[in-house]
Amino acid sequence: MNLKQTSSSQTTFISILGIAVLLVAVIGTSFAVFTYTGTGTKTNTITTGTITMSYIEPTNGISITDMMPTTDDTGKKLASGTNVFDFTVSATITGTVTVNYAVGAKKTTDSTLDNNSVKLYLEELATSGGAFQSVVKGPVVYSESTTEDATTGAPSGIMTLATGSFTSSSSKYYRLRMWVADTYQPTSTSQKFSVKVNVYGKAASK
Amino acid sequence: MEKGKIILSILGIAFLVAIVFGSTYAIFTFSKAGTKENKITTGTVSMTYTEGTAGITLTDMVPMDDDTGKARRGANTNFEFTVSATITGTTTINYDIYAEKTTGSTLDEKFVKVYLTDGAYEYGTEKAMSGYTSTIPVYSELSTMPGNTSQRKLYSGTLTNSNTSQHFRLRLWLLSTYTDNTTAKTFGIKVGVKATQKAS
After folding, report:
1. B185 near B63, Cβ under 8 Å?
2. Best mutation target, A53, A66, A71, A166, to test chain B (most B CBs within 10 A)
3. Touching check for B45 and chain A: CB below 8 Å?
4. Extents of the domains making up chain A
5. Which chain B residues touch A66 with a CB distance below 8 Å?
6. pLDDT tens string A90-131
7. Buried-most residue among A92, A170, B3, B89 (CB within 10 A)?
8. Confidence of residue B22 (pLDDT cuts 50, 70, 90)
9. How confident is the model over B28-86, as pLDDT tens digits?
């Protein structure tokens, strides 16, 4: 065998060997040379938190007829019954979340008395219909907001009486009073002013 | 193919981003409109001041004592008027009866006696209003109205929804000690009412 023939054979052998190695590498690794399966025993679970809110009104709203101009000192002491409006705002929360809320008063369309002739006054109570806890708003004349509140979800066009937040299940107890401002000058015609109380809530973004 | 995979990957990422950002906005909102109406209606007040058919007209008057002056009756010797209010609601209307001298009055105010009684009573049984029970004042002794010194207060009273009107009878006469008989002089007044209501 001459040199030329030897070189060619070697080349061929090396090629075949290379291909064989390649084949083994490819085929070999495509089959599991080692396998393992570990089965977990711990359950990884997520459960969602829950949020509910409620707004509870009493049976009757404020109803005062033939009301004359009233000083703030007198108005703030209006006795219970149909002279006050006690209501409750509650949230039930599981999980970590902050719910911002707003209490708003909305004038009814059949009101004829000027906004500046009505005073509103909101207190927070310790319990439903219970002892005074703090003054929340007023006495102040009725005035509607021109912008919505993105924090609480309260729309424009209402008078915000109170804002707050819940971070856990709890309730807030409020008492609303309303009277004819002492600046009002009675005429021979009776005027009317009426509001309904609405509540808005929104979870804070994280 | 590759292009398709790239597009799908981009869409997938975009979808994931949307879910992530979407879930950071309010996951909870609450809105409840109240159903109970909270209502107040205002009371009403209207007042009237009604004068009698004729005022006092006394010509060639001579000085007289108080007993004579108080007992005068008959046409043009006294002036009757009524103050009344229509009230719905609970309030008190405070009012002042005042007199204002007319222009052309030449008689000195200190020579004119003023006497006010409750016009609900008949002649002879009249009751003097407060301020006229013990002594009869002369016009110059009456206090001036707040903010207007040309007006003198005849009487202050109140009206409520249980006391809605007051009838008055006014007399004037020449003081018994007046001595100027040389010149005829005149004295005239007009009567008015001012009322205020205070917030309670």
Report:
1. no
2. A66
3. yes
4. 50-203
5. 41-44, 88-90
6. 999 998 999 999 999 999 999 999 999 999 999 999 999 999
7. B89
8. very low
9. 999 999 999 999 999 999 999 999 877 887 777 889 999 999 999 877 889 999 999 99
Distance CA A183, CA A185 (A): 6
How is A56-90 classified by DSSP, letter by letter? E--SS--EEEEEPPB-HHHHTT--SSTTEEEEEEE
Q: What's the ipTM?
A: 0.79
**Residue B197 and residue B44: Cα distance in Å, rounded?**
12
Give the pTM.
0.78
The encoded tokens of residue A59 equal 């049976």
Residue B154 and residue B98 in contact, taking contact as beta carbons nearer than 8 Å: yes
Residues of chain A by 3-state class (helix, strand, coil), percent to 5: 15, 40, 40
H or E segment to which residue A15 belongs: helix A3-30
Identify all chain A residues contacting B41, using CB atoms and an 8 Å cutoff: 64-67, 190-193
Q: Which domains does chain B have, with CATH numbers?
A: 44-197 (2.60.120)
- Mutation to test the A interface, candidates B23, B36, B42, most A Cβ within 10 Å: B42
- Looking up tokens 């006795």 gives A79
